[in-house]
Amino acid sequence: MRRTSALALAAVLVGGATSVATAPPSAAEAAPIGFASVTALGQSGTTGGAGGPAVTVSTAADFTAAVKADGPRVVRVQGMITLAAGMYDVSSDKTVIGVGANSGITGGGLNIGLPVSSVTTPPANAVHNVIIRNMVFRNANDDSINVQMFSHHVWIDHNDLSAGKDGLIDIKRGSSYVTVSWNHTHHHTKNMLLGHDDGNAAQDTGHLKVTYHHNFFDRTPQRNPRTRFGNPVHVFNNYYVANSDTGVACQNKSGCWVEGNYFENVEEPMTNSYAGPKGSIVERDNVYVNSGEPVVGGSVEDPRGYYAYTLDTPANVKALVTQGAGTGKI
């Protein structure tokens, strides 16, 4: 296990003064890295609405009709759209993308998935191939984004999410092959949940394969993420700051591979014994600044068995993520 302090940041002398060398923000990826890139369940990566028509929407009626329409479609959201309270379905083969830095939805949330049932194998009509990018989410009366019921190949990227009632990004009930990347989450307590219940092993075992990378967990106290059953859950190159409860909480047979993250003023950066049955955590090359000790142990599948990726230098992650995460960057 490696410990790296703030002094590990490269110092450069310029004109007798000391400054910190940082890397410039990376250009936004054109395609997902991580589990959303994997060929599985009849889907080769995640392309969203590519190949379908593009439509620009600025009203609640047009927005909700466009995101649930049949067939591939790119839905361009212009401005902040106020939705009535509730969760609004997004169908397969959709890209939902905000125009500029200040477009999105408020009042309601997005549901990516079939209605809840007790089935334990992926249904043929499971929602799949969905991209949510560059969207502002505010004041949802439930979840801001909910992925459920064996949905797969979902890419949630470069969004700004805050002030919801329940989770900002929850993934559950057998969903898998999801990448959550470059999002800025803030002004919210229950951030991201993976696996909703300790008693849902029948649906979740073997699923809930999710990658979380380059997210800015900005003073979100808990669920950054909190996981159950998924293995591996890959958490890399995220920036955590002032998370007053926990960073990664890996529980109930889940396995988290946590590497190359930057934890600053985090009470408990990661734990496999937060509440309920334990999970497993492999911890590598993380930066800890004014933070507590990680609680780790157990074995986890190596995500490189599923996809290739390149880690950014952990000492540069704070600068990369604060400059590159959120809206207006793609």
TrEMBL record:
Annotated keywords: Carbohydrate metabolism, Lyase, Polysaccharide degradation, Secreted, Signal
GO biological process: polysaccharide catabolic process
GO molecular function ontology, one term from the record: pectate lyase activity
GO cellular component: extracellular region
InterPro entries xref list: Pec_lyase, Pectin_lyas_fold, Pectin_lyase_fold/virulence, PEL
Pfam families from the UniProt entry: Pectate_lyase_4 (PF00544)
Signal peptide feature range: 1-23
Matches recorded under PANTHER family: PECTATE LYASE 18-RELATED (PTHR31683), PECTATE LYASE 21-RELATED (PTHR31683:SF18)
Protein name as annotated: Pectate lyase
Species of provenance: Lentzea flaviverrucosa
Lineage: Bacteria, Bacillati, Actinomycetota, Actinomycetes, Pseudonocardiales
